[in-house]
Amino acid sequence: MGACGAVCHNAVVIPAPSRHARPVLQPRSDGQFTHAAKPTTAVVIGGGLAGLSAAVVLAERGVRVTVLEREHFLGGRVGAWTDRLQDGTAFDMERGFHAFFRQYYNLRQLLKRVDPGLGFLKPTDDYPILTPTGNESFAGLTHAPLVNVAKLTWRTETLRIRDLMKVNVPAALAMLRFDFERTYAAFDQVTAGEYLDSLNFPPVARQRLLHVFAHSCFNPQADMSAAALLQMLHFYFTANHDGLVFDVADRPFSRGIFQPLAALLDRLGAVVRTGTGARSLERREAGWAVETDREPLSADLVVLATDVPGIRAVVDASRGLADPAWQERIASLRVTNAFAVWRLWLDRPVTAGRAGFAGTAGVGPLDNISVYENLEDESRDWAVRTGGSVVELHAYALPAGCDEAALKHQLLDGLRVLYPETVGAALIEERFLLRQDCPAFAPGSDALRPEVRTPFRGLALAGDFVRLPFPSALMERATAAGMLAANTLLAELGVAPEPLWSVAVRGPLAPRS
Ligand SMILES: Cc1cc2nc3c(=O)[nH]c(=O)nc-3n(C[C@H](O)[C@H](O)[C@H](O)COP(=O)(O)OP(=O)(O)OC[C@H]3O[C@@H](n4cnc5c(N)ncnc54)[C@H](O)[C@@H]3O)c2cc1C
């Protein structure tokens, strides 16, 4: 590690992405090759952030990469595809609004390769939480997490002095004492719901300050590990010195991220095949055979960067991956409950000044509201042209067998309560997605959670479901896992890794021994 948090590889100083970013998993020596010494090929299975991060890192180091993506678009859960409104307007529909937090250091390093100033990201000035009985705001917080905790506690009307006296201090301190080994040993068998109950917050404070955050992990509190929740609280809140507000994309992710990344891969000599699923792998004496929906491929290296259903299907169908302990890890992976994304084109505007994105609580299954004309250029043009509004509603951790019509009814009710100007608005158009492909972080799941490294030479895993040895979540976890998968394979070739970054690995009050 060099001055100002920079790292040094092969005498090249790589500046830290933020003065708060900490380098993680740095190799002991930097005297390695910058490029693969002999011609090397890799197949990356999955064109989400995990797969594309791995592909970019490998291709930059001279590996000839082929990316296989089952869908006709890149990006996976952040993906976007072209659709058309009835009036003929083309638009890019996405798998849903995404927030780009400032401590997503590895994701930002990836995106800076195609947009050095990150010009497609625009800062928000608040992260409001709206409820029928009052709102919370994350505006005006500092870069010092402990000061933020005190500030939020002081200004929320949901916590009075008498409530604070009742808070379970040792349980609350677990947020500041995060340490992978100790926290997972103590809390992985506990549910997130049990942990949040144990804090003894008044119900309204619990709902406004904690429920919204917990639900953003897509897992229901009753079936999520408290250790996984504490890891996320540490990553987003108590160890994050880059602020609680986030950036948003000012254009669809297709234009902002995935077309530029595909062009970068092309310039690096990589081949991206969309609409091509991988079916199975077979270990060969040297390297791998990959069976696909089209012609078979062979490669020296493979990164398996699908979602959870994808990895289970590919591993089940593969030959030569006979390591019972590892297969048990793969078989232990689950998806969590379904989520819904409902985009509405309304015939009238929402009130001026509505937040581009707002978390919600106390309005049934509705988890957040995005006003797309306040975010993206495409929706802004439509709203200006028609005088309408493009609103997106999300609902996470839905119960099994959820009925679409009933859910839509509840989501619309929630919107009308919080944004009463939408009462009576006509739906000009709508797009509704109900999906179930986010990973589960169930109580007790950490022991078997697979890591990037596999028992097989030349094969690594990536995705937001893998276990990482440093704090991370969601898009940042996918990107960091992809880069780590590439580094793991590059290490076998003696090639210098991509520097990786995170917030502090341990909480500010974590015991030192
Ligand atoms: C509604 C919603 C909102 C979200 N909001 C946020 C947010 O605000 N901030 C945030 O950080 N994160 C957010 N996330 C989470 C984020 O989208 C994911 O963590 C991240 O995109 C995961 O990336 P990945 O590459 O691990 O997986 P994926 O994006 O799922 O990519 C896996 C890819 O593999 C492909 N695949 C599967 N099987 C095969 C096969 N056999 N062959 C070839 N390809 C295959 C899939 O089609 C997919 O493209 C949100 C997710 C959702 C669903």
Please explain how this structure is put together.
By secondary structure, this protein is an alpha+beta fold. It folds into three domains: 17-75 and 252-333 and 443-502, FAD/NAD(P)-binding domain, CATH 3.50.50; 137-238, Guanine Nucleotide Dissociation Inhibitor, domain 1; 337-435, Polyamine Oxidase, Chain A, domain 2 (Alpha-Beta Complex), CATH 3.90.660.50. The chain contains 15 helices and 24 strands. It has helices at residues 49-60, 105-112, 145-155, 161-166, 169-173, 180-187, 192-198, 203-215, 226-238, 253-267, 308-317, 324-331, 377-386, 404-418, 474-493, and strands at 7-9, 12-14, 22-24, 41-45, 64-69, 80-84, 90-94, 100-101, 121-123, 129-131, 134-136, 246-249, 271-274, 278-283, 288-292, 297-299, 301-304, 338-346, 357-360, 368-371, 389-398, 427-435, 459-461, 500-502. Strands 11-10-19-20-21-18-22 form a seven-stranded mixed beta sheet, sandwiched between helices. A five-stranded parallel beta sheet has the order 13-5-4-17-23, covered by helices on one side. It has a three-stranded antiparallel beta sheet with strand order 8-12-9, with no helix packed on it. Helix 6 (180-187) packs across helix 9. The longest helix is centred in the C-terminal third of the chain and has 20 residues, at 474-493. The two termini are 23 Å apart. The mean pLDDT is 92. The chain binds flavin-adenine dinucleotide. The site of flavin-adenine dinucleotide (FAD) has 35 residues, from helix 1, strand 5, helix 11, strand 18 and helix 15.
